[in-house]
Amino acid sequence: MAQQSSRVQEGVDQLRTRIRRIQRQVSTRRKALAKELTTRRKAIEKRAQREITRVQKEIARQPLVKRAQKQASTLRAEAQSRIEAGVAGVLGAFPLATKGEIDRIDRKLRSIDRKLREMEKAQGHAAA
Question: In this structure, are 15 and 39 located in the same domain?
């Protein structure tokens, strides 16, 4: 009976050893597959990006696309000019100073301030 028990224990030990070996092999294989998957994914992404760039360039060379881009640019410029005209019209309806007028007034005030300081400085020297 003891001999039979020892054989059973040996069998169990052998199974455990084999299971651990298989687990290590599975783990090693899983890591290798993960690394290979990452490498392949990066290669596919790189190829896809090159292909996307090529297709974008090819599309941009198409006459229809060129015309559409030209029209879009024209429409954008026209819309901007209309908006600016509308803003100028709205601002013109109110008694508001334009930026140019404010800049001109600011320069004039700085000039007057500078002259005033020179006059005060001259008076201070004359009084002393």
Answer: yes
Query: Tokens 């790189």 appear where?
Result: 46
pTM across the whole model: 0.44
The domain total for the chain is: 3
The arithmetic mean of pLDDT across residues 26-43, rounded, is 96
Is the domain of 119 the same as that of 88? no
The number of residues in the chain equals: 128
- In this structure, are residues 76 and 84 in contact, taking their beta carbons and an 8 Å threshold? no
Give yes or no: residues 85 and 111 share one domain. Answer: no
Cα 115 to chain centroid distance, Å, stands at: 51
Q: What is the mean pLDDT of the chain?
A: 91
Q: How confident is the model over 74-95, as pLDDT tens digits? A: 999 999 999 999 888 887 788 8
Q: Which of 88, 114, 109 shows the shortest CA–CA distance to 99?
A: 88
Distance from C-alpha of 101 to C-alpha of 108, rounded to nearest angstrom:
11
**Mean pLDDT along residues 41-46:** 96
Query: Phi and psi for 62 in degrees, rounded to 5?
Result: -70, 135
Helix (H) or strand (E) holding 97: none
